[in-house]
């Protein structure tokens, strides 16, 4: 019987744990670890089976990211973000995917939804130029998935409302220049550096429009919910980090502190807070899986209520991330001075959680958008959908 993707995630945990210091100090995943994760399909949970990927549904993919994130936030983030970016191969032909990633394809990608440059129309494709940032997993990527402002001979291409039209180009990393700028308090191992390109020709077959359907008839690749399906794994990353912090706190709880020989676990206020944190994680996780499961059912059945359910998914994702930050903060405070030492994992989870929590999927604007939709008022919060 072949190894399931969740079993693969569990099997890689000892190697991640053995490389924690290198991940943090080198600001990347060590080559051996990245290669092993890639070989097990852990950077591409949504990659189509026809291209060698597991093509998991979001509910099945969720615990895979959680399992890795409980050990290291950066490795879990690369699993989540890599999955979001490699799913772009569902938008191009099999032939194009093999041109970019090899045959058999070794699909490793990074990229950015931010428009960091331009794609100027030319015969047979586009000339791509610009600089893109926050390219997580850049150290082990083969190609970048880049959102570009569309240009023609007359300048910016605008839609009927006067807004800039964009296109997405998949570009080999070797065609550009990497800029090592990633120096942060946490999530150091994501290697979220910059890359720039200057007049790189990209054939039309290596590009796509984010609003158009892809090549595969699978609800997983519905452009209406593609962003939320990727963010679902962002919530898994946050909840995994929170669970990792809980595990680290338990290791500290049996020891005395510098202020008192009494162990943390024997203190009523610590017991209360720990119980509260367990409830927060469990409730937040259930809310995400419930809403995503409901949306997924509508997606599979092609029901007309799909986007109504998507509102609750976005709300649940933001809530899970914000509450995960709360959990880590509570644990860090309750641990006292014991929390500040690198010798235990709690300070690492604290740093990672406060970087992960800055992602747009966890911002309060998501609450605003949900509130506007539920109240039936005009939506003016950013949607990115």
Q: How many domains comprise the coordinates?
A: 3
The CATH class of the largest domain turns out to be Mainly Alpha
Rounded to an integer in angstroms, the radius of gyration calculated over CA atoms is: 21 Å
Query: Tally the helices: what do you get?
Result: 11
Mean pLDDT: 93
Euclidean distance between termini CA atoms = 39 Å
Number of strands: 8
CATH homologous superfamily label of the largest domain: Butyryl-CoA Dehydrogenase, subunit A, domain 3
What does the overall shape look like? globular
Strand content range = 15-25%
Low-confidence stretches: none
The assigned structural class equals: alpha+beta
Corresponding CATH architecture of the largest domain: Up-down Bundle
CATH topology of the largest domain: Butyryl-CoA Dehydrogenase, subunit A, domain 3
Biggest sheet layout: 8 strands, mixed
Give helix % range: 40-55%
Written as H for each helix and E for each strand, in order along the chain, the element string is HHHHHHEEEEEEEEHHHHH
In words, what does this structure look like?
By secondary structure, the protein is an alpha+beta fold. The protein folds into three domains: 5-90, Orthogonal Bundle (Butyryl-Coa Dehydrogenase, subunit A, domain 1); 113-208, Butyryl-CoA Dehydrogenase, subunit A, domain 2 (Beta Barrel), CATH 2.40.110.10; 222-375, Up-down Bundle (Butyryl-CoA Dehydrogenase, subunit A, domain 3). The chain is 46% helix and 16% strand. It contains eleven helices and eight strands. The protein has helices at 5-18, 20-26, 31-39, 58-69, 73-86, 94-101, 226-253, 268-301, 306-334, 346-356, 365-375; strands spanning 109-122, 125-135, 143-152, 155-156, 166-172, 177-179, 193-203, 207-208. Strands 1, 2, 3, 4, 5, 6, 7 and 8 form an eight-stranded mixed β-sheet that branches. A hairpin with a 2-residue loop joins strand 1 and strand 2. Helix 5 (73-86) packs antiparallel against helix 7 (226-253), helix 7 packs parallel to helix 9 (306-334) and helix 9 packs antiparallel against helix 11. The chain is globular and about 75 Å long. The mean pLDDT is 93.
């Amino acid at each position: 019987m072949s190894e399931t993707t969740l079993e693969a995630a569990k099997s890689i945990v000892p190697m991640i744990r053995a490389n924690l210091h290198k991940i943090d100090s080198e600001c990347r995943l060590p080559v051996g670890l990245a290669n092993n994760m890639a070989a097990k399909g852990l950077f591409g949970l949504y990659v189509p089976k026809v291209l060698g990927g597991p093509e998991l549904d979001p509910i099945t993919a969720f615990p895979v990211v959680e399992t890795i994130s409980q050990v290291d936030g950066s490795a879990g983030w690369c699993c989540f973000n890599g999955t979001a970016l490699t799913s772009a191969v569902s938008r191009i032909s099999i032939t194009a995917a093999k041109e970019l990633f090899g045959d058999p394809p070794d699909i490793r990608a990074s990229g950015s939804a931010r428009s960091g440059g331009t794609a100027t129309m030319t015969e047979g494709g586009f000339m791509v130029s610009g600089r893109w940032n926050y390219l997580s997993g850049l150290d082990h990527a083969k190609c970048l998935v880049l959102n570009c402002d569309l240009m023609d001979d007359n300048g910016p291409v605008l839609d009927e409302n006067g807004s800039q039209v964009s296109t997405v180009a998949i570009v080999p990393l070797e065609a550009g220049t990497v800029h090592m700028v990633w120096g942060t308090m946490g999530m150091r191992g994501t290697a979220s550096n910059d890359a720039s390109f200057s007049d790189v020709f990209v054939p039309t077959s290596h590009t796509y429009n984010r609003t158009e359907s892809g090549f595969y008839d699978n609800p997983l690749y519905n452009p209406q919910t593609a962003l939320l399906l990727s963010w679902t794994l962002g919530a898994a990353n946050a909840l995994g980090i929170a669970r990792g912090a809980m595990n680290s706190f338990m290791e500290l709880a049996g020891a005395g502190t510098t202020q008192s020989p009494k162990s943390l676990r024997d203190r009523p206020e610590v017991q209360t807070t720990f119980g509260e944190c367990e409830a927060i994680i469990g409730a937040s996780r259930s809310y995400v899986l419930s809403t995503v499961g409901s949306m997924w059912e509508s997606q599979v059945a092609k029901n007309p209520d799909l986007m109504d359910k998507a509102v609750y998914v976005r709300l649940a994702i933001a809530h899970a991330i914000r509450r995960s930050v709360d959990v880590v903060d509570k644990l860090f405070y309750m641990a006292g001075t014991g929390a500040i030492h690198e010798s235990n994992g709690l300070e690492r989870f604290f740093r990672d959680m406060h970087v992960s929590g800055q992602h747009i999927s966890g911002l309060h604007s998501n609450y605003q958008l949900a509130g506007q939709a539920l109240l039936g008022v005009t939506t003016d919060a950013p949607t990115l959908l």
